[in-house]
Specification:
- The strands form five sheets. A six-stranded mixed beta sheet has the order 9-8-13-12-11-10, with helices on one face. The chain has a five-stranded mixed beta sheet with strand order 1-2-3-14-17.
- A hairpin with a 5-residue loop joins strand 6 (about 90-100) and strand 7 (about 105-110).
- It has helices at about 60-70, 75-90, 115-120, 125-140, 205-215, 245-250, 250-265, 280-285, 295-315, 350-370, 390-405, 405-420; strands at about 5, 15, 20-25, 45-50, 50-55, 90-100, 105-110, 140-150, 155-160, 165-170, 180, 195-200, 225-230, 275-280, 330, 335, 340-345, 430-440, 445-450.
- It folds into two domains: about 1-30 and about 275-345, no CATH class; about 45-245 and about 400-450, no CATH class.
- Helix 2 crosses helix 4 (about 125-140) and helix 7 (about 250-265) packs antiparallel against helix 10 (about 350-370).
- By secondary structure, it is an alpha+beta fold.
- It is built from twelve helices and 19 strands.
Length: about 450
């Protein structure tokens, strides 16, 4: 077999690379997405013991499939890591808001408490922040575990459980989610020995819920889940991650496919003679799934068929011969359907357009993350996505990122605030992130620090 065929999960060919031609399938397949949307309003369910679980995605595998996709797309992976880094900044500080200046900015006084400073700079807190913001941006929600001492009088640990291993129980009649099932076997249904059930704190006021449990002597030998979500997606169980819109729009697929295309182009020294575009509907009629006992046999038949097409187009003995294709006209809208398009190519395929498409996909993915591409050096020198990559533009874009991260920062600080106040911390003590801001040389320094 000379043709190298890329199939989707349903066995439909997407691209085929021959020695003298390449083929692409046109139109939209019925099932083209590898990542299923995390349904929430009327969730799919599974069970773990006697607990009914809201599935995370139609196959309960949204985190694992999302992680695979993120790791394959460089700009998405680095963009999410960039968001994690600027959100966390240079760590947190306990402060007291003493008032406001004439511009409405907070007047902050750092708290001179050795215990709070040690807590803020501890590996436990740094580890919590890093893992929570990772899951928050990659998958949507984070699952923070608050761990009390043996007596149940104080909290002694805060830990982020990997979101891949967490599933939420279906809400009760009052609409409250009470349980989180933790297992390393998800998306498969775990056996009785391979999952742990942890109570989930009330999302409305987690601190009040925790204090009620303490007064009712319901804390000993238990830990609790504090969920962190961005409510923008309106999903009650598993909020959609920020990058998901660029996936649904197809930009993540483009960012994945263009490098594969270019790699094949260079392997073949860009010497293809023909570009054949074949509609999806053709494969369903020519090779119906019902005729093949499994997908691999169907894929083999399609590959052989594509080899025959290449032989007809490029072999010396078939020179000047004709290839016949057929199409039909839709009687309703009079549009041509299932039409093949065979285009002769010049000696060298111009890959510049594919590079532009790849750069546009990178930009669109960063836009979905609300990151100015220039900050990561992804600005394009001309065209629709052109931008000034000068220092001022990068500094301003970075400041916008920090300003936009305020709500995310507060979501991350809420579990820490609950932790400290449950242990008797003062209510006027608040937490802020420290950020390094790039400045111009005429200020006398290259950077300046600020609390946010």
């Amino acid at each position: 077999m000379s043709a190298d065929v890329m199939f989707n999960e349903s066995g439909i060919p997407l691209m085929a690379f021959g020695t003298r031609h390449f083929a692409t399938t046109t139109g939209v397949p019925l099932k083209s997405k590898k990542i299923s949307e995390p349904k929430n309003d009327d969730p799919d369910t599974t069970t773990a013991g006697d607990i009914t679980i809201s599935s995370w995605g139609s196959s309960n595998d949204f985190p694992s499939t999302s992680d695979i996709t993120i790791n394959k797309v460089g700009v998405l992976n680095s963009g999410l890591k960039f968001m994690r880094n600027f959100t966390i900044g240079q760590g947190i500080f306990p402060v007291i808001v003493t008032g406001y200046d004439e511009k409405g900015n907070e007047k902050l006084e750092q708290v001179d408490d050795p215990k709070l400073r040690a807590f803020a700079n501890s590996r436990m807190v740094r580890r919590y922040l890093e893992k929570s913001v990772r899951d928050y941006f990659k998958f949507g929600p984070s699952f923070v575990q608050l761990i009390p001492n043996e007596e149940g009088t104080n909290l002694v640990g805060i830990n982020t459980i990997n979101a891949k291993y967490c599933r939420l129980g279906v809400a009760d009649k009052a609409g409250v989610i009470n349980k989180c099932v933790v297992s390393g076997q998800w998306p498969d249904t775990p056996s009785e020995r391979n999952f742990k059930v942890i109570d989930v704190l009330d999302d409305y006021d987690p601190l009040a819920d925790l204090l009620r449990k303490k007064n009712a002597n319901q804390i000993k030998n238990k830990s609790f889940i504090y969920t962190i979500r961005d409510s923008w997606s309106n999903n009650e169980y598993y909020s959609c991650p920020i990058w998901y819109s660029s996936y649904l729009a197809g930009w993540v697929d483009i960012a994945l496919d263009v490098p594969k295309f270019l790699k094949k182009a260079y392997e073949n020294q860009i010497s293809w003679k023909w570009h054949v575009q074949i509609p999806y509907a053709f494969w369903d009629k020519k090779f119906p799934e019902s005729k093949y006992p499994d997908t691999k046999l169907r894929q083999t038949a399609i590959s052989d068929y594509l080899d025959a097409i290449e032989e007809n187009l490029t072999s010396p003995e078939n020179a000047n011969k004709t290839i016949f294709t057929f199409f039909e006209v839709n009687p309703v809208n009079q549009k041509i359907e299932e039409q093949w398009i065979i285009t002769p190519l010049e000696n060298k395929l111009n890959a510049e357009q594919n590079l532009i498409s790849s750069a546009a996909a990178n930009s669109e993915i960063l836009f979905s993350l609300m990151i100015n591409p220039n900050v990561l050096g992804a600005g394009m020198p001309g065209g629709t996505y052109a931008g000034n990559q000068g220092g001022s533009n990068i500094r301003e874009a970075f400041l916008v990122n920090i300003a936009n991260s305020w709500l995310d920062c507060q979501n991350l600080l809420d579990p820490l605030e609950t932790f400290v106040r449950f242990n008797g911390g003062k209510e006027d003590v608040e937490w802020r992130f420290k950020n390094t801001i790039l400045t111009t040389l005429d200020t006398g320094s290259g950077t300046t620090n600020t609390l946010s």
